[in-house]
Structure formats: structure tokens, C-alpha cells
Design a protein that fits this description.
The chain is about 35% helix and about 25% strand. It is α/β, with parallel strands linked by helices. The strands form two sheets. The chain has a five-stranded mixed sheet, with helices on both faces. A two-stranded antiparallel ribbon has the order 1-2. Helix 4 (about 115-125) runs parallel beside helix 5 (about 145-155). The longest helix has 21 residues, at about 15-35. The chain starts with 7 loop residues before the first helix and ends in a 28-residue tail after the last strand.
């Protein structure tokens, strides 16, 4: 999904909080750009009967993990991603040696606990000198949800907020993005026996 070369700093990322905190938002920006401008937003919607519904947050978390892990591995980066499971959600921990971490929390904007969760991260991270956080919020609605508006008001550098627009863009156009092309091959003698 992400077709961009990592900068030299990302391939051999120094083991420092500033270096990791610089690289992870760049990865998030590329992920957002791919979803919003290259029609990958379509992978977050499924037709149920006569209407479309967006995927559950677990799908968004796992897609972000898969894309990032594949990309970093293919580029030969020394940054590792660890999945951290709790009873209710998954967070992604980016690190070089484990000493410094950038934690990404993937959320959906319609989550009624979006603000509560954001405040809990802010409270739990005060005074931490080895970890930074990102709140990656997938917005499936036109405009901004009230929960997203509330956390943007209290945004703090301890946990930077990234919004990704995953709204269904065109309801009239058929979903052709992942359909198989209809290619006809003429009768050609390829010379194989």
C-alpha cells in the first residue's frame, strides 16, 4: 500500500526518542495519504444488504500494523513494531532497542470513549521521558464527530492526534478498485508443445 522510500534516518534510525518520534508520524502521513488519495478508503467499507458499513476498529488496527510492519521490513529499517494487547484494544509500539518507544493507538472517531481514552493516555504519560504517543483516529463520517472535536481541543504534545478521512466518497460509482479486469486474449499460437 505504501510506495515510498524510507529516509536514511528511518533505515538506520538512531536509538533516541526524538528520532523515533520523527519517523513514526512520517509513516502515519504516508498511510493517511494512501487511504485518502489512492482510494484505499474503500477497504474500510463493506456492503451489508442495501447499505454500506465500515469495519470494526480491530480491522483498522491490524491493517495499520500489517502495512507498517511490511513496509519497515521491506525497507530494511531497524525499527521494530510490537503489538501490545489489553483487554479492550491493541496499541502498536515502535522502537529500535526497546529503550525508547512511540506508541500508536488506532481509534474510530465514532467511539463514545474517544475522549476518555485520550485523557487516560495523557494522565498515564505525564513525566515519561522514554515514550511518546500518537492517537490515529479513523473518521468515517462527513465532518468532524463531537468526540474528535473534543480531543482536538485538549490535544497535547504528549499524544499527537492524527485524523484519517475514511468517509465513503462516491455512492453512485461502482466499487471497481479491487475487481478483476475483463481481459480477452486472442487465439495465439505460443509455440508450446
Amino acid at each position: 500500500i505504501i510506495h515510498v522510500e524510507l529516509a536514511k534516518e528511518a533505515k538506520d534510525c538512531p536509538d533516541s526518542l526524538d528520532a523515533i518520534a520523527f519517523t513514526v508520524p512520517a509513516i502515519i502521513h504516508h498511510f493517511r495519504d494512501t487511504i485518502e488519495t489512492k482510494e484505499v478508503w474503500r477497504t474500510f467499507w463493506t456492503k451489508c444488504g442495501s447499505e454500506y458499513k465500515h469495519v470494526k476498529v480491530y480491522y483498522s488496527e491490524m491493517l495499520f500494523f500489517t502495512v507498517c510492519n511490511t513496509w519497515l521490513t521491506s525497507q530494511g529499517s531497524n525499527i521494530k513494531i510490537n503489538l501490545k494487547h489489553t483487554a479492550k484494544h491493541i496499541s502498536l509500539e515502535f522502537t529500535v532497542s526497546g529503550k525508547y518507544k512511540q506508541v500508536v493507538h488506532v481509534k474510530h472517531a465514532n467511539n463514545p470513549n474517544l475522549e476518555k481514552g485520550y485523557k487516560a493516555i495523557l494522565e498515564g504519560c505525564r513525566g515519561s521521558s522514554d515514550t511518546k504517543h500518537c492517537y490515529l483516529v479513523m473518521n468515517f463520517k462527513e465532518g468532524i464527530t463531537s468526540q474528535l472535536r473534543e480531543i482536538k481541543v485538549i490535544e497535547n504534545p504528549i499524544c499527537k492526534i492524527f485524523e484519517i478521512d475514511v468517509t465513503k466518497k462516491d455512492t453512485e460509482q461502482p466499487n471497481n478498485l479491487f475487481s478483476s479486469p475483463n481481459i480477452e486474449f486472442p487465439d495465439i499460437d505460443w509455440g508450446f508443445t
